[in-house]
Protein: Homoserine dehydrogenase
Amino acid sequence: MLKVGIIGVGTVGTSVANILIDNKNIITARAGKEIVPTIGVVSNLGKKRDVSIKLTTNADEILEDDSIDIVVELMGGIDKPYEIVKKALLKGKAVVTANKALLAYHRYELQELAGDIPFEFEAAVAGGIPIINALRDGLSANHIKSIQGIMNGTCNYMLTRMINDGVNYDEILKEAQELGYAEADPTFDVGGYDAAHKLLILGSIAYGIDVKPEEILIEGIENITKADIEFAKEFEYSIKLLGIAKKVGNEIELRVHPVLIPEDKMIAKVDGVMNGISVVGDKVGETMYYGAGAGGDATASAVVANIIDIARKGKGSPMLGFEKQPGEKITLMPKENIQTKYYLRLEVADKSGTLAKVATIFGNNSISIENMMQKPLKDSKANLLLTTHTCVEKDILKAIKELENSGVVLTKPNMIRIED
Amino acid sequence: MLKVGIIGVGTVGTSVANILIDNKNIITARAGKEIVPTIGVVSNLGKKRDVSIKLTTNADEILEDDSIDIVVELMGGIDKPYEIVKKALLKGKAVVTANKALLAYHRYELQELAGDIPFEFEAAVAGGIPIINALRDGLSANHIKSIQGIMNGTCNYMLTRMINDGVNYDEILKEAQELGYAEADPTFDVGGYDAAHKLLILGSIAYGIDVKPEEILIEGIENITKADIEFAKEFEYSIKLLGIAKKVGNEIELRVHPVLIPEDKMIAKVDGVMNGISVVGDKVGETMYYGAGAGGDATASAVVANIIDIARKGKGSPMLGFEKQPGEKITLMPKENIQTKYYLRLEVADKSGTLAKVATIFGNNSISIENMMQKPLKDSKANLLLTTHTCVEKDILKAIKELENSGVVLTKPNMIRIED
Structure:
């Protein structure tokens, strides 16, 4: 028998306890032993919760209890869970966490501390989708060439509604907040930070690269307008917030930003609050994993899968530096060296000479245009919408700055990267 | 170090040997030890093959060699591989096979014989997609409510072309044969038998049910016409050949047939030769897995993942009666008791009274109509296209028989089940 202590008994913690009880028969059969949730730690004992396990406010009742085998950390935050997970591992307890922020900052350190003690976190990326399982086991024969993930349901819901129903950003943000999909302060979701935490976890598994959120390119969906969406539809693109990890030589690209992506790509078809992650392996080609990225039961499904796995295997599985080969030196690709195609929306005066100025600036920066269209606006203004051939991020940023300085654009240009 | 012997060095066997060599560094790191392909068994030594391992025509050079740890069976067929796998397991060798026909008939027996010796077959279902891994590990906290799989790339390619490009069945079959997607005798693919073998493997993992292909409902895509496709498009359905496993009480539905499926469902968006499998768990909700279902490297990716897994774990994982709880009695639902919605195409004489006769027959069999449309054909004939509300398979079959006997239909009615 394995005893489980749950630190943080909110929506997910409640589901974990209840799944272990509701599905006890199959879980026992699959794990090869009984798994019993025995105690939960909460901050407020007065709050009504739908669980039958004993509750306490004192985490040490789990950490200092030698009979507890597995600690499930579902607190949220970084510093306090970090101390608790460390203490649990030092006590020799297996740890399962769904805490992506904790992992985005401390996963290597904690994994190293864990050594052979299981330290698992399937639920931290894309909720119920077994994507870490796929990367570590199912695709283990492959060099991972790239990962593209829709890993934030809030953003995907908002973008889907903007594309399918023509709703604009402010309206849909309000709706998402009313539906409970977005927080009162939505920055963490719409700004791309949540997706970035998840991307760093996948990047570490695929490539063994250890970087912090502050080091990578993160852009949110706040600047996407109806004009961008109309252009995308006209050129058969969808717009998605993607977390992208890609190996180019010995450098790893890690970036989160909205993309224009051909609408016939499988990941472009992932709509609404759902998550989807496309992984390209050198042998298997593209595979994609789809499901609910959030929600108590879906997330708890992944937590319990980790618990069952721990019961089966009894020790940790190799994790760190998964892709890194002995002696191989991999580094994060500097943001300004990223190469891709770009979409730009420029608000310009609708008069002769404008196009020539724009074209000159692009030419001077080694940027060549693939598609262009001009849409009239009110008051003799126009939107100039264009896509480039593949070019270098620093060149496009320089061109945008020059466009702004030259006065040819009337407002700050909007740029969206293209993935195809 | 683990030594691997490969029995059957065709496209997949060649890829297995080459992946083990090409990706040796990461595989060694992930497996925790070196894995070496040492010998392959072929029937014709004279044929040129792109492998560097030793080749022989004598399987006993693997089976009788105590230094070989893992036997990879990629022969095809049933009886001969059955004998070879049995012998390998009796010799205590781990076995990895991609042979779905062998498994459709003998998996329980072989798994039981294997006991704690690893007997793995990820590649037998949906090629490179790690679906067995997902069912056994990633979704282990869930009762599996249903599985819907596009598991035959040939059929999916043909249906996609028929739907997107209006090509008719005979033309597209010829094209698929020319492209090498379909065999000269295409029955095994287009008749649904290949998908059925894969479905039985998934059914055994999800539900622990042991039945043979002969016992389940299998229909192919041979009777789908342009008229059906046009109707489907008009009502926003796609047409897919699905393998379906579903638990209803203590009965398991297992069936392979074309379906009309709402085109906004994720699995309906899996196009071309690709495979996709949707799994609904009681906790996680719907998850979907997508990728290449065939091809040497993709299939070999799954074979090698199993080999790496064996190297890591060193013994078999619980497999049989996965979902079946102690004492639970599950049985195959008899075909005639299946309940779903149905689409029917009836070729009728375009004259008064026809509709009344049709309606009477449906009414007498407790079948109620949901949608209906009539499309004129040449020579005063018409296609009557309709969908029913949920009804019982035996009732619809009886109604079809009565329609034929009554003379109201001019040709054999075409029936396609609806999944939504």
Notes: The longest strand of chain A covers residues 237-248. Chain A has a mean pLDDT of 94.
